């Protein structure tokens, strides 16, 4: 995923997943199939989850509050990637997002932690929480997300995997 312009190229599909808590659902893998890249916004809980996702597409992952042990120590708490002309910041908890993301050129912030799926645009920055693809919490849906990026244009969607 380089930072080259998309003149004449197709939109990139970036799969978004979070809070798997060591559960790799077949529905989540199906949702991510065919993506150009995958972003996991933390609370992975076991290396095997990352291994399964890397078999589908290049993976960017951050450490969540439940990611402990030697395997998790290598994961950053914040990650930035650029897809075409869009810079994406990934952090587990939205409380850990800095106040100057727009000034820093970030167009999309991907978070997890709350298990609540959300798409919200504020001050030109698109905030996306794909929700939880892991064990059900309360009455929240089991969900994941997708970013479609074409040059500097970005569109986010949420997908309920299990109602």
Describe the structure.
The protein is mainly beta and 163 residues long. It has a single domain, classed as Metallo-dependent phosphatases (Purple Acid Phosphatase, chain A, domain 2, 4-Layer Sandwich). It is built from 3 helices and 10 strands; from the N terminus they run βαβαβαβββββββ. It has helices at residues 26-32, 47-54, 70-73, and strands spanning 12-17, 37-40, 59-61, 78-83, 86-91, 108-110, 118-122, 125-129, 142-150, 153-162. A 5-stranded mixed β-sheet has the order 3-2-1-9-10. A 5-stranded mixed β-sheet has the order 4-5-6-8-7, with no helix packed on it. β2, α2 (47-54) and β3 (59-61) form a beta-alpha-beta unit. The radius of gyration is 15 Å and the shape is globular.
Task: Break the fold down into its secondary structure elements and pairings.
Blueprint: E1 12-17, H1 26-32, E2 37-40, H2 47-54, E3 59-61, H3 70-73, E4 78-83, E5 86-91, E6 108-110, E7 118-122, E8 125-129, E9 142-150, E10 153-162
Parallel strand pairs: 1-2, 2-3, 5-6, 6-8
Antiparallel strand pairs: 1-9, 4-5, 7-8, 9-10
- The count of helical stretches stands at 3
* Domain module tally: 1
Name of the top-level CATH class: Alpha Beta
Radius of gyration, rounded? 15 Å
Main sheet properties: 5 strands, mixed
Provide the CATH topology: Purple Acid Phosphatase, chain A, domain 2
Model regions low in confidence, pLDDT < 50 over at least 5 residues: 1-7
Kindly, what is the distance between the CA atoms of the first and last residues, rounded to a whole number of angstroms? 32 Å
| Broad shape | globular
* Fraction in beta strands: 25-35%
Q: Can you tell me the CATH superfamily?
A: Metallo-dependent phosphatases
Query: Helicity, in percent?
Result: 10-25%
Biggest sheet: strands side by side, in what order?
Answer: 3-2-1-9-10
Number of strands: 10
Q: What is the quaternary state of this protein?
A: single chain
The arrangement of helices and strands along the chain is EHEHEHEEEEEEE
Q: What is the level-2 CATH architecture name?
A: 4-Layer Sandwich
What is the residue-mean pLDDT, rounded to a whole number? 93
Give the structural class. mainly beta
